[in-house]
């Protein structure tokens, strides 16, 4: 079934039980979709709100195939499902959205760079390096420092190194060899394909941007306003939407680039294009994500249609909703685990102080720097909006009393 019909609810299978899956439940309920969840463990964020749930291993083909029976479409909370399993699903006639041929560009940074080069998308200079000596040769040619990344299995800045000079060139190879990243023990280890080291030109960026678009199987596309994003030690901390000071021509060029990438790669659902704005003005593609993205959380309360609703609309091949912002400025702050263990107790203060503030908690236990929630504020005056959101997040993290 490719579109929703009245005969029975459209069944969306979501693989992965993190907060991204959890945040799809609200819009799924409103759209009358039935969600079936494949959770990695009992009690994870989305499993707490699910009623049709299978607990199992997403890297086990038999588990995923039996989970998908009866699903009209399957989508994801994360990008770690092995390509071979997704291909097997497609062979059985399950609509995988996004499909494995698109998703591989979010799973493997080398595949992504090669596709971006083919599309002529602006990217840092790059090269796949097999040894520390090749990394040194790349740095000598391009200029130090350079960035080294694992092709697969990185997340939240893990698997990305700034290499200042030849003396550090063994670091990424040692990390992969020891299994510290990209190997047996990391969260991203489920995808198939070997882990390679990608060397990149170090971009002296002034800021990072995110261009979020959604594409439906029918080929409709919508583009959200471009956001400015702030990472703290590899973790998204804050987004400001729209990105301050980005002129109309560059906004449109950036949105068009993201829509073109989504179209050319055949993405279904959300595509987040992470970008770097270089000191010389170039806007370069950093990486791609194909699922609702942290830099789009602002849209839950700040846009006419949230990224989660539009993702599900795309998965069910419904017409997409208006991505425009409701207010001139929207600021989202992540709430990371800090010294406050009882987040609910913190709600009393932040909600009574600011009735327009929106809080989203993920049902996760507080651990240091773990993403446990986010807050959103919107309004006409950016410094005021930002101060309100920042206060609430810092209070919930226990940084201020
Ligand atoms: N070529 C580059 N030049 C300068 N900084 C870079 C470069 N590539 C990446 N970075 C920095 O490292 C961060 C993490 O890189 P990247 O997004 O590739 O890794 P990740 O671990 O997959 O991230 P995510 O948490 O988004 O999954 C980027 O957000 C950016 O701040
Ligand atoms: Mg990234």
UniProtKB/TrEMBL annotation:
Amino acids binding ATP: 109, 149, 200-203, 208, 286-287
Gene: purK
Any one GO biological process: 'de novo' IMP biosynthetic process
Name listed for the protein in its UniProt record: N5-carboxyaminoimidazole ribonucleotide synthase
Function per UniProt: Catalyzes the ATP-dependent conversion of 5-aminoimidazole ribonucleotide (AIR) and HCO(3)- to N5-carboxyaminoimidazole ribonucleotide (N5-CAIR). Catalyzes the ATP-dependent conversion of 5-aminoimidazole ribonucleotide (AIR) and HCO(3)(-) to N5-carboxyaminoimidazole ribonucleotide (N5-CAIR).
Keywords, comma-separated and alphabetical: ATP-binding, Ligase, Nucleotide-binding, Purine biosynthesis
A Pfam entry, by short name: PurK_C
PANTHER family on file: PHOSPHORIBOSYLAMINOIMIDAZOLE CARBOXYLASE (PTHR11609:SF5), PURINE BIOSYNTHESIS PROTEIN 6/7, PUR6/7 (PTHR11609)
Residues of the ATP-grasp domain: 113-316
UniProt similarity note: Belongs to the PurK/PurT family.
Pathway: Purine metabolism; IMP biosynthesis via de novo pathway; 5-amino-1-(5-phospho-D-ribosyl)imidazole-4-carboxylate from 5-amino-1-(5-phospho-D-ribosyl)imidazole (N5-CAIR route): step 1/2
Keyword Cytoplasm on entry: no
Catalytic reaction list: 5-amino-1-(5-phospho-beta-D-ribosyl)imidazole + hydrogencarbonate + ATP = 5-carboxyamino-1-(5-phospho-D-ribosyl)imidazole + ADP + phosphate + 2 H(+)
């Amino acid at each position: 079934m490719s579109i929703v019909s009245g005969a029975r609810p459209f069944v969306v299978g979501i693989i992965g039980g993190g907060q991204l899956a959890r945040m799809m439940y609200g819009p799924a309920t409103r759209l009358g979709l039935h969600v079936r969840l494949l959770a990695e463990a009992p009690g994870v964020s989305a499993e707490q709100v699910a009623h049709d749930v299978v607990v199992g291993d997403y890297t086990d083909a038999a588990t995923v195939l039996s989970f998908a029976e009866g699903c009209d479409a399957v989508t994801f909370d994360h990008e770690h499902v092995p390509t071979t399993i997704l291909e097997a699903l497609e062979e059985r006639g399950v609509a995988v959205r996004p499909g494995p041929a698109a998703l591989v560009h979010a799973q493997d940074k080398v595949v992504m760079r090669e596709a971006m080069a083919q599309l002529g998308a602006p990217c840092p200079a790059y090269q796949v390096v097999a040894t520390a000596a090749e990394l040194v040769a790349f740095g000598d040619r391009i200029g130090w420092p350079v960035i080294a990344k694992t092709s697969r299995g990185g997340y939240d800045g893990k698997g990305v190194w700034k290499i200042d000079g030849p003396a550090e060139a063994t670091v990424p190879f040692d990390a992969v060899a020891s299994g510290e990243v990209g190997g047996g023990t990391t969260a991203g280890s489920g995808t198939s394909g070997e882990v390679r080291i990608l060397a990149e030109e170090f971009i002296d960026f002034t800021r990072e941007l995110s261009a979020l678009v959604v594409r439906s199987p029918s080929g409709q596309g919508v583009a959200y306003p471009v956001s400015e994003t702030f990472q703290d030690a590899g973790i998204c901390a804050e987004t400001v939407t729209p990105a301050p000071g980005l002129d109309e021509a560059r906004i449109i060029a950036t949105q068009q680039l993201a829509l073109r990438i989504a179209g050319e790669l055949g993405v279904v659902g959300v595509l987040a294009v992470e970008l770097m704005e270089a000191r010389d003005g170039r806007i370069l593609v950093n990486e791609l994500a194909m699922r609702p993205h942290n830099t789009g959380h602002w849209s839950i309360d700040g846009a006419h249609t949230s990224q989660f609703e539009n993702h599900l609309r795309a998965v069910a091949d419904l017409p997409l909703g208006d991505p425009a912002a409701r207010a001139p400025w929207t600021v989202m702050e992540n709430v990371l685990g800090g010294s406050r263990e009882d987040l609910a107790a913190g709600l009393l203060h932040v909600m009574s102080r600011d009735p327009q503030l929106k809080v989203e908690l993920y049902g996760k236990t507080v651990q240091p720097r773990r993403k446990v929630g986010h807050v959103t504020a919107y309004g006409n005056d950016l410094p005021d909006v930002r101060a309100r959101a920042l206060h609430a997040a810092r209070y919930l993290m226990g940084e201020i009393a």
